[in-house]
Structures are given as structure tokens and as C-alpha cells.
Amino acid sequence: MAFERDLNLEATELRLGLPGTQESRSNKRSLPDMNIVDDQDHRSGSSRVIANASNATKSEEETTPPSKTQVVGWPPIRSYRKNSLQAKKSEAEASGIYVKVSMDGAPYLRKIHLNIYKDYPELLKALEDMFKFKVGEYSESEGYNGSEFVPTYEDKDGDWMLVGDVPWEMFITSCKRLRVMKGSEARGLGCAV
Amino acid sequence: MRQDLTVQQMSEDDDRSPPLDLRCGAAPSINRARNCSGEAVSGSGSSTSSSIPASVPVTVTEYQSQYPDQVLEIVLENVLQFLTSRRDRNAASLVCKSWWRAEALTRSELFIGNCYAVSPDRARGRFRRVRSVVLKGKPRFADFNLMPPDWGAHFGPWVCVLANAYPWLEKVYLKRMSITDDDLALLAESFSGFKELTLVCCEGFGTCGLAFIASKCRQLRVLDLIETEVTDDEVDWISLFPEGETCLESLIFDCVDCAINFEALEKLVARSPFLRKLRLNRHVSIRQLYRLMVRAPQLTHLGTGKYGPSEVAQRQGDTEPDYIAAFAACKSLVCLSGFREITPDYLSAIYPVCANLTSLNFSYATITADQLKPVICNCHKLQIFWALDSICDEGLQAVAATCKELRELRVFPMNAQEDVEGPVSEVGLQAISEGCRKLQSILYFCQRMTNAAVIAMSSNCLELEVFRLCIMGRHRPDHATGEPMDEGFGAIVRNCRKLTRLAVSGLLTDRAFGYIGKYGKLIRTLSVAFAGDSDMGLKYVLEGCPKLQKLEIRDSPFGDAALRSGLHHYYNMRFLWMSSCRLTRQGCQEIAQAMPRLVVEVIRSDDEEETDNYVETLYMYRSLEGPRHDAPKFVTILR
Q1: Cβ of B493 under 8 Å from any chain A Cβ?
Q2: What is the pTM of this model?
Q3: Rounded CA gap, B75 and B511, in Å?
Q4: Residue B636 host element (H or E)
Q5: By residue range, what is the domain housing residue A181?
Q6: With a CB-CB cutoff of 8 Å, which residues 294-323 of chain B face chain A?
Q7: Is A32 part of any domain?
Q8: What mean pLDDT is predicted for residues B528-544?
Q9: Highest taxon of the source (chain B) (predicted)?
């Protein structure tokens, strides 16, 4: 589009590499690393570098943000150790192992371990047992029918969503906390009171 | 035959009393009978007696001295039985031919630091009565993906020869070897008295292979798998140990990342009264750990597995076991590890054992300084401490305040990246140096460091033998002064007179290497990465460090001229590794041509063609065998 051409977005585009070069795909050259103090003195031969995330031709050990390059085998940690910690980090980040559950009107919050449930019915049953209420029938068009209470959750973006809309796997990776809302507040979410 | 010729040559050079074998009659038979020690080893007997030609004259004086020399050799063999250090044995074997022979017959522990330096047949030919074998394969940088897979170090050829040569073999220790299930099957079937298997940083096999070991090695005392990759063949190997009481003393499988049959494990522990060392994998929950501890309070070494609840929701009304009591019952516990997915609430359960602990490994536990402090403040006897940098400088200060007996410290990064804000720094290192004056070995990952702290450690910790500092940002200078880290490492080599192993990092100029060459006279292992300015750096080291055995270098500007400066020394080294440096193929070729007993391998990453002028990886090592025959396509051996 002409508009974009005029702005010359390409020139101001943030990317890795010296000005005027294409993003290098080679994993034999070391790309300029912003963090090396004496960049000019970086005279060693071909440093093996994993190409950045957008150009990955090899599988990377860790997902890196596109602006960083990672050198093979540096820092010198055995993959076994790296993977153990990585697994823990992504488990912690992905499933948010324990999430807080609040119930409107209840004096204190609870915490549940999302991973131990394998689908929505199990989760809802556990919530019902924990807080002594009933959720009612879920339907996509009408939300939770036939109950005062509606289960909602806060996702990664900070938005409050109705529990049940997305596939379970997606839910457990994006759920940060749960809140069982009471009827009067839940009207906008399709609770037919 | 060739071996006999060597023996003959040695006898011609030998000025001292001629070999026992030349004397008539009684002497050779005495030799043979004694050498056999109950086994029919007529083969070895003949090699020492009948092959010596009769052309060497036997004079009257020699005849008269027969008996004293005979006695001498008997004494020698009996004394040599007690020599255990391989360095002492190597020295003894060089004295003269009869000492060489006696030593070869009495060596029971075979140590081979590079599996390609000598062939299995040659080893078997010299050493006839071996009970224990140590074999090391790949160089250490292979651990960091710097070497393509399938490079070599196969156990297969070795196990075949061992199976034939040493039916009484009891112990095998392998490090960085490539092992298949079939290799383990052959091992299990070939040695009826097999007692100890230790595999460190190995790969290539799965639970299938473990099943062979468990089921067939009836005398097994030790099965230790340390940082070894084991594929999950979904075989229930734990349940294959023999019924009835076992001889098991040590069962270490914390790196085996497969679910195990817990009931079978519990029964195994219950019927293993000699079990002292047990290290569980992360699939064992804390409740399960409790059950095992209750059955084995005699344990001295415990790897606690997950140290958190299992993922299966607990039934209502299930009370938590009394973990504190379980730990308190383990009065002999001195070494604690595991904590693979720790729930810090349970940490207080270990308080009862802290006062006796000599070794504590928290390197998989993301605990904070506050969580560490109540534990560590009781660990007065602690000698070995491994942790994650999640404990921060503050945690290290707590360690320094209490652990006055500390000999070894390792601090690993939670976040193995270059750019992040690190939780440990020069502050932690300084504290440790002031508090732990008996420190012998340190491995320290950090994001920032100062020369001052390193210098402090060099003057406070004079017992240091191993100093490995990894400043994770490449070429990072002293963050307080902006200077290179030369002075810090220089102080280490200058002040720590017992230093044998050094790993350097951060911004380093040739000056640092000058210090290493000048003062590092006892250094045997040196690791260099992203350091140095020019060939001089490597020259200083190769010319200055007479004890250097293992040199591993990556991404440093050392070239052919530097490589040449080590020609006088390469036969004394186990290996040299140089990757992403400035070596050309011609340069490496020169070395190969100058030194026929050196195997010079040029390794490309997989199938990529070498488009550069520079060699990607040079790995060279002394060997009696010449180029190996199992080299994969991406390895070129220069001649």
C-alpha cells in the first residue's frame, strides 16, 4: 500500500542483523550480539548459533524471544539439567499449577490444582463440592442455565471469561484464576435467572 | 606374538638380573602355579616362560643369584597386589621387564581414560586378571551439544572382548559411552559374579537394557545411573530383580525419567537389607518416599524423588504421614538429594537429619534464601552443597555462616540465558570465600562478577583444587571496574598452589593465559570459552603447563601457529578439543603428519559441507591404535 511505502516501514523495522543485511539463516556465523561489550573485537571463527525463532531451521532447546540469539551449548549446562528446569518452568507457567478460586460471598479463597482434572465436568463438580453450590447446564449460546452461580476465569490477557467456551487444554494453559460469580453480577454472561 | 617380541626387546635392554624365565627348571613352574592362583591360565604362563629365546647366556654368577632373584619376584608380586593407585602401578611397570610382567598380572582395576586410546584386545592382552573396568568415551563438550550424535564411544566392542577375557569381572564404570540394550544383555549374561554397574552421562539404551541387568545379575550390589539418558521402553524393570533377599547396596535411578512400578520398588527395598544408597526419580511422590523410608531407615544416601504430592488428588480423610518422624528415624543419613519438584512446605521435614549431613543437593529445587536458611543453619558438618541460584547471594551468605567444613560448592542457574538479571553475583562468592576456608572445589554460574571477589577467593581458599567460574554473558568484564577478568583468574593460579582444574570465563585477554602458563604448574584440566586475543594465549598455556592433560577450548581466536606450539606436549595429554577457533585444515594436517600416534579428528556438524576456511571442531588424542574404524561420515581423520 502506498501509505506504508511512504512511511518506509522497512527501514525502521526492528530486526536482528546489521543494517542493509538480510536476516541471516546461517548457523555458522555469529550474529551481532547486542550484549557483547567489545562487539568489534569478536574475532573468533564461526560461532555456532541457533537461528532466531522466526527462522528456526533446527529445533531449539528453549523458546527464545525473537530478539535474542542463543549460542549452541552456552552456558555449559547439560541438557538433562536444562530440560528438568525448563519443564518445571513451563509447567508452572502453562498450567499455573495452583490457581486461586474465589466465590462471591465466601469469606476466604481456595486454591485448586488444575492439572488433576481432565475435563470441565470434573472441574465443575470439584467446585460445586468445594463451595456447596450448583452451576447448572452449560450451553454455548446461553451460558449456564438454571443456577445463580456462574463459573468464570481470568485469562492471560486479564479478561474475565466464561468457563467452558474454549477447549479444555487451552483453558488450563490460559487460566490464571477462577471466580464463581453470583447471579446478579453474571447477567451479562448469559445467566438466565 | 607381538607382545612376546616386546618382552624380548626389553630383556635385551635390561642390565639387571635376567628374567626369571631363563633359569632352568623350578623357577618357571613356580611362576606359573602362583600366577594362576587357582585358575588354569596356562596361556599366560607360557607367555612368560617359553617364549624367551635361549640365546641370552646364563652365567655362573647369574645361576648363583637365582634364588635371591626368585624370592625378589615372589615378593614383588605379593607387594604389587597392594598397589592400588594406577599411577603408582604405571610407574612400577616401567622399572624393568619383570616388574612390568608382575604388575600386569596383578592389576585388577583397569582404567581407560579414552576408549579410543587403546583397543580392547590390546588391553586384554596385557592385563590378564581384571575385576574392574573404568571406561571413558566422549569428551566433556559433547554434553553441551557441541558434537553431533553418533560420534562414537561405543561400548559394544569392549563388552564383547571383556566377556571373553574376564569371566570374573565384577565392576564396570562407564562415563560418556554409547551403550545399547544388547550390550547390557551381554554384560548381564557374561559375568556370573557381576557386582557393580555405574553409568555416568551415558546414552543409547532403555529400560529394556535395565531389565536384563536387574534380572540376570544375581550378585548385583550397585546399580547407579547418574545423569544418563534412558529411553522409556515401558518395561517394568524394577519388578525383575530376583525374588528373595538381594545384595543391593546402592540403587540410583534419579535420572531415569520413566514412571516406575512403586509396589515392586517397595517390595524390593523391603527385601534389600544391605541397601544404603537409594536415589529415586521424580515420579516417586513424597507419600511414596515416606513408605520407602519407613522400610529402609538404614539408608546413608537418599535421593528424595519429587518431594511433592503426586498429581492424583488425595482422598478426603487421608492424613499426611509423619515425614519428620521418618527422617528422624534415618540416623545414618549423610547425603540428601532429589527434591525434583519440591513443594517447599515439606522442607521442614528434613530438619532432624541436617546436623549429620555431609552432602546436600538442592540443584533441582527452586527454593529461595528464606526457605534455605532454616535448613542450612543446622548443617554444620556439610562438605558438599549443590544448589540453584534461586537461593541468591543471601542464601550463599547463610551457607558461608554455617558450613565451615564445606569442601565443594556448585551453584547452577535457574535461568540458563545470557541476558537476565542474575540472582547470584560477586557478593555470594565473596561471602563463601570468607566463610568456607576449606573449600576445595567450586562451580559457580553467575551473570556478573568482579576481579576483587575472585582475588579474595584466591587468598582465602588456599585448598582450592578445582575452580570453575562461568560468567554466563560472553566476554563480560568486571562489572565494577569494566576491566577484563585477567587479574582475578591470575590470582587464582598464583595463590592456589594445589589447583588442578580450571574453567575460565568473562572478558579475558592473552594476559590471563600468560598467568595460567606461568603459575598453573599443576593444572591438568583447562576449559576455555570465548576468551583470549591471539595465538599467544594458547601458546602460553601449551608451553607453560607441564601437567596439562585435558584442554577444551571453544570460540576463541587461536590458530595454527598456536596449535604448533604444543607439539612437544600432545603425547602427554589425553585430548585436545578446539571448536569454532581459527584452525585451518592444513594446520591440523601438519600436526597429524608430525605426530603419528595422535589421532586428529576434524568434526563437522552433521552433513554440512565445510564452506569456511576454518575447521569447525578439532578433537585430537593420543592412541596406540591409529585411526578408528567406526568413525561416522561427519568425522574426518587426518593423516
Answers
A1: no
A2: 0.75
A3: 53
A4: strand B635-638
A5: 98-186
A6: 311-313
A7: no
A8: 97
A9: Eukaryota
